[in-house]
Specification:
By secondary structure, this protein is an alpha/beta fold. It contains 12 helices and 12 strands. It has helices at 15-27, 54-57, 64-73, 96-114, 123-130, 167-175, 180-187, 202-210, 221-230, 247-254, 288-302, 307-320; strands at 6-9, 31-33, 45-52, 77-84, 117-120, 138-140, 158-164, 191-195, 214-217, 231-237, 258-262, 279-280. Helix 5 links the parallel strand 5 (117-120) and strand 6 (138-140). Helix 1 packs across helix 12 and helix 10 packs across helix 11 (288-302). The longest helix is centred in the N-terminal third of the chain and has 19 residues, at 96-114. The radius of gyration is 22 Å and the shape is globular.
């Protein structure tokens, strides 16, 4: 008889919750919001999958309580897996991120040392974690799209440029190089479609209206997917070294949209090559045919970690670490003489 499993997430809405929700069904591990005051003494079972985002669990990104709690819970579960959505912040000496970075690193080190398996979304993060992790299964999986995927891509696209994401993410696109996106859209005869929650900046709202932007508001996942399936281009301002963890970039790739990446540099990270898998800024495009090629390349890069592939990878990691470091008392574990061959399904 299977024991209970849980997907631990920080309180509130957002990309981590969306990501965890998509994985939770195949793993039979429903979501459980965990705060410092949450009662967990009665929890035990097969799998405890922790979706770690430091700032999600604590306002300054230093949830020391989380490490203590997981150490208490650790012996009561067959397996503990950790998904590192982020590791630690960094910044100049006058920023709080600079002074908190050491404590954030310590928490990440302690969490990976507790894990029977772990996953992260960037190769650079994986290299850092590997220095502190034991010899346990792990995988690098750039994030998948939370707003659907296309099984096949129709080459016919409308002359639209989508700016999608949170208000903050979209505002960065519009602010880039003093509004370069508006000049680019006019020059290329593209209509900008703004998709996401209302931007609070009144002056920016007025600018969008003046520029003829189609402000579509916050749409359902299916509506966003339909808009992306029809769009030629999509813009996002995000550092190239972190773009593998961008849900907006993943959504563009999943729909064969040609991504325009706005970044201070364009070095190769996580297999993403500038002007092959994304356009390096608004001046990189040389014709519609190139946009189709880049969009197709972006989708090909995305395929190995699309939703179904990520679900299968997590199931394989859980199966591969059955038994865990701290076997539950009285539980028959795969690998023992009594349990060998019986396996545990998660």
């Amino acid at each position: 008889m299977n024991m209970a499993s849980y997907s631990i997430i920080p309180p509130g809405a957002g990309g981590v919750r969306d990501y965890a929700s998509i994985l939770s069904g195949p793993l039979h591990a429903p979501l459980l919001e965990l705060a410092e005051a949450t009662e967990t003494s009665g929890l035990s079972g097969d799998l405890l999958l922790v979706h770690f985002s430091g700032y999600g669990f604590q306002a300054r990104g230093v949830p020391a309580w989380l490490v203590r709690r997981l150490r208490q819970m650790r012996p009561r579960f067959n397996q503990v897996g950790v998904v590192f959505h982020e590791l630690f912040a960094s910044g100049p000496p006058w920023s709080s991120a600079f002074w908190l970075s050491g404590a954030q690193k310590r928490i990440a080190r302690e969490l990976v040392a507790l894990a029977d398996f772990w996953v992260t979304n960037r190769e650079e993060s994986a290299r850092w974690l590997s220095r502190y992790a034991g010899p346990v299964p792990h995988k690098v999986l750039p994030v998948f799209s939370n707003v659907g995927e296309l099984d096949t891509v129709d080459g016919r696209r409308q002359d639209t440029l989508v700016v999608f994401g949170s208000a903050e993410v979209r505002s960065k696109v519009y602010a880039w190089a003093n509004g370069q996106v508006f000049d680019y859209a006019k020059r290329s005869q593209l209509q900008i479609h703004d998709i996401g929650p209302t931007i609070g900046d009144v002056s920016l709202q007025a600018r969008l209206s003046e520029e003829g932007v189609a402000v579509r508001g916050k749409l359902s996942a299916d509506e966003v997917s339909a808009a992306l399936a029809a769009a030629r281009l999509g813009a996002v301002a995000y550092p190239v070294e972190f773009v593998a963890k961008s849900g907006v970039f993943a959504a563009y790739c999943a729909h064969g949209v040609c991504p325009i990446l706005l970044s201070s540099s364009y070095a190769t990270h996580d297999g993403l090559v500038a002007n092959e898998h994304f356009l390096a800024g608004f001046n990189a495009l040389a014709g519609d045919s190139r946009a189709r090629v880049v969009g197709s390349n972006a989708r090909a890069w995305y395929e190995p970690h699309r939703v179904s592939a990520a679900q299968a990878a997590f199931q394989a990691l859980a199966r591969g670490s059955v038994g865990g470091k701290y076997p539950v008392p009285g539980r028959v574990h795969a690998g023992s003489e009594q349990g060998a061959g019986s396996g545990v399904t998660v």
